[in-house]
């Protein structure tokens, strides 16, 4: 009897192992397929192709030619994020009426399938799609993504915290909205807790979404003392446009690695 039970348990373990491995390799295949597509999208946009900002903005924004294809795949598409030679080449989505902690894209792929790595998404604090381009009122666009152990999604952001060489080689971030391609320069990297109760470790990077907010200047004034990396030669003002990338550190559930950049 004991031998029979042992055999049943062994068979169940083998079946479970096979299922787990099949799911793992299927997800690996899907990730690889997606990454190839995203790399093709990244090749459509290079730093030397970014136009200068026109002095006269059109009253009605015109979508970039590649947007139609991407919106056809996912109507929630609002942009494409690229940090050259880092592995970060990903589409960005937004659900403005969904709380960040409840966003389905935390574990859903851009194509709509279940995926642990999820999809990069704009915080609901950056209130609407207009915040993703120069036509909107929001000056600080916050993008969330998982810090994946395999180096996908925002996994490469760890380099900003761990290596000055990585920082030096990845100061430029390209963010292409539906309407224009924007170049940003990284000027601050820091780690915070997202629990307001721990005041010394909490730093509210949601505190200014618009630069006319009363928290804007105090926030920037307090940044240098909290940063792993800070470049005080990068000029910022109330007319600046900011891009904030946020991911978990992997050290604890409530700590976040934050990379801030300003539009050039």
Can you walk through the features of this model?
The protein is α+β, with helices and mostly antiparallel strands and 264 residues long. It has a single domain, classed as Sortase (Sortase, Chain: A, Beta Barrel). Helix content is 25%, strand content 23%. It is built from five helices and nine strands, in the order H-H-E-E-E-E-H-H-E-E-H-E-E-E. It has helices at 2-43, 67-73, 158-162, 164-169, 216-222, and strands spanning 77-83, 88-93, 120-122, 140-144, 172-177, 181-193, 227-230, 242-248, 255-263. It has an eight-stranded mixed barrel. The longest helix is centred in the first third of the chain and has 42 residues, at 2-43. It is globular, with a radius of gyration of 21 Å. The termini are far apart. Mean pLDDT is 82; it is low at 129-135.
């Amino acid at each position: 009897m004991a031998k029979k039970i042992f055999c049943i348990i062994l068979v169940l373990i083998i079946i479970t192992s096979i299922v787990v491995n099949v799911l793992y390799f299927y997800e690996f295949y899907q990730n690889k397929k997606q990454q190839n597509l995203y790399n093709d999208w990244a090749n459509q946009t290079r730093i030397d192709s970014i136009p200068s900002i026109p002095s006269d903005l059109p009253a009605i924004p015109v979508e970039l030619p590649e947007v139609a294809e991407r919106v056809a795949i996912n109507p929630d598409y609002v942009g494409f994020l690229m940090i050259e030679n880092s592995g970060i080449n990903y589409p960005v989505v937004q659900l403005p009426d969904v709380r960040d902690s409840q966003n389905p894209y935390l574990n859903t792929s851009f194509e709509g399938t279940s995926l642990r790595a999820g999809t990069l998404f704009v915080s609901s604090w950056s209130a609407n799609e207009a915040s993703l381009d120069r036509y909107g009122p929001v000056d600080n666009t916050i993008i969330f993504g998982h810090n994946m152990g395999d180096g996908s999604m925002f996994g490469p952001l760890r380099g900003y915290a761990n290596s000055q060489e990585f920082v030096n080689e990845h100061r430029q971030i390209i963010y292409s909205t539906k309407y224009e391609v924007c170049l940003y320069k990284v000027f601050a990297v820091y780690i915070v807790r997202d629990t307001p109760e721990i005041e010394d470790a909490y730093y509210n990077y949601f505190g200014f979404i618009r630069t006319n907010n009363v928290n804007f200047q105090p926030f920037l004034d307090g940044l240098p003392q909290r940063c792993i990396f800070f470049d005080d030669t990068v000029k910022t003002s109330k007319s600046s446009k900011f891009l904030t990338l946020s991911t978990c550190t992997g050290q604890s559930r409530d700590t976040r690695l934050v990379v801030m950049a300003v539009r050039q």
